Amino acid sequence: MNDHRPLHRTVSLSQQDWSLHRKGPADQARHNEKVKEAIRENLADIISEQSIITSDGQKIVKVPIRSLEEYKFRFGEPPEGGQVGQGDGKSQVGDVIERGGRPGPGRGPGAGDQPGIDYYEAELTVDELAALLFEDLSLPRLEPKRTPQLESETIRFTDVRKRGAISNLDKRRTIRENLKRQALQGGPGAPLHFGGITADDLRFKTWETEVRYESNAVVLALMDVSGSMGPFEKYISRAFYFWMVKFLRTRYAHVEIVFIAHHTEAKEVSEEEFFSRGESGGTKASSGYQLALDIVDARYPAADWNIYPFHFSDGDNWPSDNERCRELVVQLLERANQLGYGEIRQGAYGRSGYSSTLMSVFERLDHPRLQPVVITDKAEVYPALRTFFASDEEGRRSNV
Amino acid sequence: MPDQRYLDELSDAAERLWAMAHEMGLRPFPTHFEVVPAAIMYEFGAYGMPGRFSHWTHGRAFQQMKTMYDYGLSKIYELVINTNPSYAYLLDVNSVLQNKFVIAHVLGHTDFFANNAHFAKTSRRMVETMNCNAERIAGYEYEHGVREVERLLDAVLALEEHIDPYAEEAEYAASLRPEPKRRAPAAATGAYDDLWDLDREGRAAAAAEPRPKPGPYHDLLLYLLTNSPVLEDWERDIVSVVRDEMLYFLPQMRTKIANEGWAVFWHLRLLRALDLTPQEWGDFANLHAGVLQPSKRSINPYYVGHGILESINRQHGGDEAAVAPVLFEIRERESDISLIRNYLTQELVDDLDLYLYDQRGGDLVVVEKDFEKIREVLVQSLANRGHPRILVADGDYHGNRELYLRHDYEGQAAASTSKPA
């Protein structure tokens, strides 16, 4: 492909092979990586957006990326007296050249009005966002259980044959066969050169499907729906459970989720009801724990299941009920791999002071598998997710 | 990939166009044309030069250009490197006629590069220099970490517009690098007090050490290069690389209108002299019209530059022998600013239909057609290439080695926060 012809040593033309040139794509990849980093930095703010939580997975989310702006000294206002443009030959003072237009910032000719020159917003679907969010999350302390029922298929290359798809060609074995055949034909001392492959030399890898068993897991989602749960508290618990459900469905094919809503009484509800219903009344959290315990004992024996109860509440429990909660939580912890408790506090009930909440009960328990979290702000939903679903060594091992 | 016949045809065309350009009086650098695929064209376009250093902004530019091309929104036709010999790139998917057009246009550019006074100091070996620079920067990445180098490049590139080609390095290198700060000695109480006296002598020497003289200094990068007390040698090298490469690009930015006008002027004449078929004439007219498309909201340098040259040509009654000395002098002397100042007339403004527009209510409205006002705004917008003029007012502000930068206000306020442009 090389045609190099000097013409009077002054003008020449040639064409080379550029197929190995990769600089642009490499720096492009770095840019994309920066976009991803920027999105990740913004995750805490993005995921508590009302509009996302009430959407289906296809909605496009715009994520502002400030860190990708290049810092430059720029003019803050268009120049006085206007900017120069060109008409089609008949322009008059007073002609409108663009309705609702804005002159480009600074004096750069036409800067900012070309499409795709700079984007400070990345567009993602909720599902793409979810993939980013859950990259390094998993169910913690996942253990292999007695009767693994959930199966998934995988492919493993286990055998070598003479026929197969060319994409599965086993090059090393093919070369060896080729050399062996030549050695056989050539007699002692003949030099060996790889080449002249015949159909007989070819070796292909072939596969078998294997069934892998995954550990069973059930997540019990408990939510306080009593009258003391204001709009903020309800919103936070829904936001958390929205992403939790998304996370579990994205990462695990067979996790079961049980939804329980409680005030002074607890009820198992459908997913739809769980996310939409409003209730009122007092709070006895023990009713929720009791129902969770009953469901576990009846349907998800700890010997067969990894069990993850989560409970979100404002912590404002009927005081005489606290002791009973403590007992039930201890019983649940005997069966559960981890119990997550999120307490949502706002304003006067913020982080400090006020200790007669459910949180005070759990803090005294100080159990290694009990994971309490306090949320006072929208942006803390993501950290809470990360606390509950932090990958640990154990989780990773049984998960591979 | 194009076949041999395509390459032969282009080779012959390049040879013919070269000979014709010489007959017409052009004296371009020897020019080598390389036929490349789109991805390569866009890479060179994004980096400004083959083999320039890696940076994510280059990667972003590459992605944007490539995407625009892939979706058929825009296409780079010509890419020419100002070196001796010059290099120019032809898109391998272009038709023979399209590439003939590009070759003719490029010869205008390489003639301008070779003969315009603003390139007198330009290094003509910049491809090699930039490749060495890129290699050294890659070495720093290896030594100090990719992120560390990127952080520095981000910072230096933010200032790249604020350089002064006429800066004298000796004037900037006003002071030695300052000594590290010493701790004040404790109150003298012991038997070794005489030792403190030695230290005091040392401090007296430090105080006498030359301090940066108050500015103004217009070249921020050169100032940091020569005066920064914190930059390490490899960091200084990167500052100097960015500055040198910008110094190379600067004359091209300052002669955009003149250079494009010149290239259009000659591609017209060169292609007219080729014996094109009627079909080719149609294609050529299309290409030419596309390049000269006026823009409502900004200046098309091809359109304005070419317009000025043709009007000068017309003033001499189209007598090419009479007008040649005038035109060739323009090609030797003018930058965009001087070209506009010297040759923009009311007649030309009417002919090119230039106007000033501004925001009125929610709309953009034509507000002025007077050539003197348009000329003023145009020249102003070309000064400092559309960037606020920021200068070092004092490098030793409050006697504290604080760097005091000032906006040299010319009637347009700088943004108080960084805004996307």
Q: How would you describe this structure to a colleague?
A:
The complex is a heterodimer of chains A (400) and B (421). Chain A folds into three domains: 58 residues, no CATH class; 63 residues, no CATH class; 183 residues, Rossmann fold, CATH 3.40.50. The longest helix of chain A is centred in the N-terminal third of the chain and has 25 residues. In chain A, strands 11-10-9-12-13-14 form a six-stranded mixed sheet, with helices on both faces. Chain A has a two-stranded antiparallel sheet with strand order 1-2. Chain A is of the alpha/beta class. Chain A is built from eleven helices and 14 strands. Chain B has a domain of 202 residues. Chain B has 17 helices and seven strands. In chain B, a hairpin with a 4-residue loop joins strand 6 and strand 7. In chain B, helix 2 packs antiparallel against helix 3, helix 5 runs antiparallel to helix 10 and helix 6 packs across helix 10. Chains A and B meet through strand 2, helix 1, strand 4 and strand 5 of A and helix 1, strand 1, helix 2, helix 3 and helix 6 of B. Strand 5 of chain A pairs antiparallel with strand 5 of chain B.
Rg of chain B, Å, rounded: 26 Å
Distance between the termini of chain A: 48 Å
| Fraction in helix of chain B | 55-70%
- The shape of chain B is globular
Kindly name the structural category of chain B.
mainly alpha
Residue-averaged pLDDT of chain A, rounded?
Answer: 77
Query: Most extensive interface: pair and counts?
Result: A-B, 76 and 94 residues
CATH class of the largest domain in chain A: Alpha Beta
Spans of at least 5 consecutive residues with low confidence of chain B: 417-421
CATH architectural type of the largest domain in chain A: 3-Layer(aba) Sandwich
Largest sheet of chain A: 6 strands, mixed
β-sheet strand percentage of chain A: 15-25%
Beta strands of chain A, count:
14
